[in-house]
User: Fold this.
Amino acid sequence: MLLWSCAGVPLGIYNISEKLNVALRVQPQILSVLSLITLGQCVYYEKTPISRDVAWPTTLTASLSAGFLAAGVLRHYWDIYIFRTVRGISFIFVALDAAGDLFSLLSLR
Assistant:
């Protein structure tokens, strides 16, 4: 993490000095900040003992996440049921999203 945050400094200098577009100027700074935050979390949690006996926060978080994702998807199915047609859904996006889900699941094992 420290190497990633340090790598953002010369990359940011290069992108700014070459007058590249705004996205390429901002991206190294965002990378550095997020890497430093992650490094701080790693250092903090290595020193803080974590009780592994309590499982309900993890279960609650996973359940809320799954519920919100399902609600977001079911809204589209409800629209299809009500209007008897598909409105506002890009099938290319749906295919890419499904492929991302598939590869995400395959990466777990």
User: Anything to note?
Assistant: The mean pLDDT is 86. The radius of gyration is 21 Å.
